[in-house]
Amino acid sequence: MELDVRHLRTLCAIAETGSLHRAARRLGTSQPALTTQLRRIEHSLGGLLFFRERTGCRPTPLGQTVLSRARPLLAGMDALVTEVRAAAAGVDGRPRLRLGSTASRAIPGWLRRLRERLPGTETQLHVAVSANALLGLVALGELDVAFVHEVEGCPLRVPDGLDQRVLLEREPQFISLSVDHPAARQDVVELADLAGDRWMVDPSVDGEWDGLRRMLTAAGLNPRVLHGDYLTAANLVATGEVVTPCQPTSRPRSDMAVRPLRGDPLGVRLLLATRQGADTEREALYGTVHSALEEAYWEAARQSAPYRAWLARPLLRASGARGRQVAWQAALMELEPRYDGGLDGGPGHGPARRAHGPGAGLGPAGGR
Questions:
Q1: By the 8 A CB rule, do 295 and 301 touch?
Q2: Which of 68, 131, 208, 271 is the least buried, fewest Cβ under 10 Å from its Cβ?
């Protein structure tokens, strides 16, 4: 068997994700098929490339040697493809904006605003579960900007040469559970009330499994955790089989409730990244992209009754952290003047509080 670019990408994906399961998800194949392909590659090269351990895969010395040669080869190939595509796209004279994003309810509003503010620009979108992979594509020049989330306590691997803008320093993660769950009757859910539940998380999403495990351990809980994608999780949540973390912008459904967790124990930071060294024109474009995303995010926040109710809480009671107060004040300034519904749109919570003065995830109900 002769090695080609696909084989090199396979080896790099396994090394970067540290897991055959996560690498298979990234490459769009099954884990058994990827395992078979890896064995064939190792047989062709005449040696073991990865140690298979209980916690994942780790390159052997031979594997490190192969990877050290494969990575620059792939980078050169990617650069060639990027340059050729850029040349082809420029034939008709239309500017092009290549966006990357982890799943978010802000995406539709983001695209709509960019279409209005950048007429004549061809906007392309690449959505992926891996924030690290998207940042890598920006560094390679295959994407212009990437909107990603960083799970608290699980720093992203940000390549050198990227500029980052923080959209939100800390976004609390809510919990999605069946409307029939006893805890769904509460406006704010205690983690202890979910001790007997099975949880579900997608381990291929960078940092989410580690973040969930850290939160549960800190609360003294050790529930059964299932691994699966969030489309599957949504169906299992609706039937009461599991609970799962979700974005606060997620909207409740007739069979699914979305609630904040007491003390907001799980959070993410929302970032927009692009390459450094931009000229004035490109910097202006980056500013337009950022402002459009910021407006789209708070539009999505307004459309989520649970998030609106959470944002309307008195700031000092919610947290003493100045940074979080500033973020919430900025959000509140953008809220509709009144919110007369309960967490799921029912009566009983009265008008939302509005801030005065200067303004500054994860899951099945809304996707990351």
A1: no
A2: 68
Give the position of tokens 């979700």.
246
What pLDDT was estimated at residue 28?
85
Reported pTM: 0.66
Q: What is the pLDDT of residue 282?
A: 75
What per-residue confidence (pLDDT) applies to 319?
45
SS3 content of the chain, % helix, strand, coil (to 5): 45, 20, 35
What is the reported pLDDT for 77?
Answer: 82
Q: Give the C-alpha separation, 185 to 223, whole Å.
A: 21
Instruction: For residue 164, report the phi and psi dihedrals to the nearest 5 degrees.
Output: -120, 135
Give the whole-angstrom CA distance, residue 92 versus residue 78.
Answer: 23
Q: How far apart are CA 345 and CA 348, in angstroms?
A: 9
Q: CA-to-CA distance for 205 and 281, rounded, in angstroms?
A: 34
By the 10 Å C-beta count (0-12 exposed, 13-18 middle, 19+ buried), 163 is classed as: middle
- Helix (H) or strand (E) holding 341, with range, is none
Residues 6+ apart with CB under 8 A from 268: 149, 150, 151, 152, 170, 171, 173, 211, 361, 362
- Residue 89 has what pLDDT? 55
Q: Rounded distance, CA 99 to CA 247, Å?
A: 21
pLDDT confidence of residue 88: 52
Contact assessment for residue 177 and residue 205, using Cβ atoms and an 8 Å cutoff = no
| Integer Cα distance of 221 and 305 in angstroms | 29
Alpha helices in the chain (DSSP H): 5-17, 20-27, 31-45, 61-89, 107-117, 131-139, 208-218, 230-238, 280-302, 305-311, 315-318, 322-333
DSSP state of 193: G
